[in-house]
Amino acid sequence: xxxxxxxxxxxxxxxxxxxxxxxxxxxxxxxxxxxxxxxxxxxxxxxxxxxxxxxxxxxxxxxxxxxxxxxxxxxxxxxxxxxxxxxxxxxxxxxxxxxxxxxxxxxxxxxxxxxxxxxxxxxxxxxxxxxxxxxxxxxxxxxxxxxxxxxxxxxxxxxxxxxxxxxxxxxxxxxxxxxxxxxxxxxxxxxxxxxxxxxxxxx
Length: 203
What we know:
single chain, Helix Hairpins, three-stranded antiparallel β-sheet, 11% strand, globular, EC 1.15.1.1
């Protein structure tokens, strides 16, 4: 068995004019495809070859863990964007108000965090603790916010394209965020948005 490149949840041109088709195709068809290929090379001939991506995320170390994290993050990233994001759900608006004052406060926090992250890194909107209070955190390429009690809600990929920051704000998928916020998944085990079902790690 091998991992496959997950399909985009929309057409490559669906995010225009905020994020160009060329950028989407490069990031999905080249960057993410290469990441999945490296992941398959790393698991080949090992017990991890029969495991789910989530099992690798939670159990592997080193280069394998980094490739699994980046593959997961890129898929999560595509679901964090939507051609028609819709209105901000009331429970999420209330949580944003508590944590950041208002939507503009969240935007400033995201932009400030992105300015401190190297290209290829990530800025995340997460919920933390039993109260699921919102926060903005950053990770490097190949890392995820998987500390106990942390639930990723949205992911912003830090890229050199000038359109990127404005695009994320225009396309932020609030419905995906509220689904993650209200979900029942254990905080240390965020669900995989898409991907092949794989058997658990053999014992």
